[in-house]
Amino acid sequence: MFGVPHLADFVKAYDVRGLVPDQLSPEVAHSIGAAFAEVVAVPDGSDGVVIGHDMRPSSPELSAAFAAGVTSRGVDVTLIGLCSTDGLYYASGALDLPGAMFTASHNPAQYNGIKLCRSAARPVGQDSGLAEIRDLAQWMLGGGTGLALPAGGPGSVTTRDLLGDYAAFLRGLVDLSGSRPLKVVVDAGNGMGGHTVPAVLGTGAGLPELPLEIVPLYFELDGTFPNHEANPLDPANLVDLQAAVREHGADIGLAFDGDADRCFVVDADGEPVSPSAVTGLVAVREIDRARAGGDTTVSIVHNVITSAAVREIVLEADATPVRTRVGHSFIKAEMARAGAVFGGEHSAHYYFRDFWFADTGMLAAMHVLAALGEQPAPLSELCAEYERYVASGEINSTVTDQAAVVEQVRAWAQVRGATTDVLDGLTVSSPAGEAPMWWFNVRASNTEPLLRLNVEAADRETMQDVRDELLALIRSGADGATAPPHEGGPAAAQDAGDAS
């Protein structure tokens, strides 16, 4: 097997993400496609597989090789071409087919990847088929033989353009036609937002004009990312958007990541609106929408790192908050179990029951635009009720013996009489009745020797005190550290846990 890539090196917990062509080559994509057909499409009795890709230079060739692997197993393929990841989820849901999206999201240009799903956009991860796909593809790459030829011969390939259908579907979920006029700066980062924003928020797909003036930044599709990384989690990549919002006197700024499944928001002053505040705002709107549709009990899912305000806001709306682990497969599974109408993560992934429980940054952005356009106040004032606490953002420390350091943190919490839980990493909350309130979560990366710390408190001084004390404790047993991000800005989510 000399020269054959070791798939376990780049088939991650929730998707495929590797260097092109050393790891992810057309040959590898072909084998993964054949394995996907065998593990998912054939056993599920699917009528075919839908495949989309982003704007990276390697995406067309890799997606074509994957399609050839699928058809080699007698399974039909529908190619939808250029699309965002949520555009692929739309296709999977609307066509009721398993799907594959070729993208490496915000990763640098030398990477590409594959996000896989079952029909109706149901997730495929290590525990739901990805490990079997990886192992079968590895066997085939190593010269394995023995798979029977499909009785009906190879599958067929058809091409469909679903961009207009995707845009119309989203507009049917959030009506922006009655909004007051809004000036909106959008930074697509040379990613797929440059393809989807004109269709959904403009007239690019033939839909009626909305009362939105879109000021485009970096809409040219370019997988080499010549202007900045398509990763709005990093505050450095929001600088151009912030400056443009102030320069144009815009009402709001939106920044999409490379595959446009996540959306970040800045207000008219160029200040970031935290994903937790967006979660709270959208949650209230989705709760009201569900009740108007006849739902009597409504649930909202959030992960362990979202602000404590999210739980409070959901309870104040007489709905049920459901707390779960970080990562799209956990969010989607919990939403399906609870029948939740909406789910949000600190990494700006937003999930909707009416979008097959899948995540779509575009739909979340439309909710924020609608909320802003339905009333006269600026976004900063509108979001003030959802921005209740002060967060550190995610801070990474390089730690070899992660378990030992977490135990030190647990002992620290016990001495202080704090409450703890281990749903995802270790979450520690201030003792009942103690004021001002604080809490933090420390969790190990799935892919790197890192501990990730998130702290939130009722005020900045308390947050900083808790943060600094914890960092001193963690880094006393650490190998090194990275600097904390901008306080109060979007928390970093570099782990594979969010699969983006």
Number of domains: 4
The major β-sheet equals: 7 strands, antiparallel
Shape: globular
Q: Give the oligomeric state.
A: single chain
The stretches of 5 or more residues where confidence is low (pLDDT under 50) are 483-499
Q: Would you give the CATH topology of the largest domain?
A: Alpha-D-Glucose-1,6-Bisphosphate, Chain A, domain 3
Structure write-up:
There is one protein chain. By secondary structure, this protein is of the alpha/beta class. The chain has four domains: 7-161, Alpha-D-Glucose-1,6-Bisphosphate, Chain A, domain 3, CATH 3.40.120.10; 165-269, Alpha-D-Glucose-1,6-Bisphosphate, Chain A, domain 3, CATH 3.40.120; 275-383, Alpha-D-Glucose-1,6-Bisphosphate, Chain A, domain 3; 395-484, Alpha-D-phosphohexomutase, C-terminal domain (TATA-Binding Protein, 2-Layer Sandwich), CATH 3.30.310.50. Helix content is 34%, strand content 20%. It is built from 14 helices and 23 strands. It has helices at 26-41, 59-71, 85-95, 130-141, 163-173, 193-200, 239-248, 275-292, 308-316, 328-338, 361-373, 379-383, 402-415, 460-476; strands at 16-19, 49-53, 77-82, 99-102, 111-117, 157-159, 182-187, 212-217, 252-256, 263-266, 272-273, 299-303, 320-324, 342-344, 350-352, 358-359, 390-391, 395-398, 419-421, 426-429, 438-444, 450-457, 480-481. The strands form four sheets. Strands 17, 18, 19, 20, 21, 22 and 23 form a seven-stranded antiparallel sheet that branches. Strands 1-5-4-2-3-6 form a six-stranded mixed sheet, sandwiched between helices. Strand 7 (182-187), helix 6 and strand 8 form a beta-alpha-beta unit. Helix 8 (275-292) packs across helix 11 (361-373). The longest helix has 18 residues, at 275-292. The two termini are 31 Å apart. Mean pLDDT is 93; it is low at 483-499.
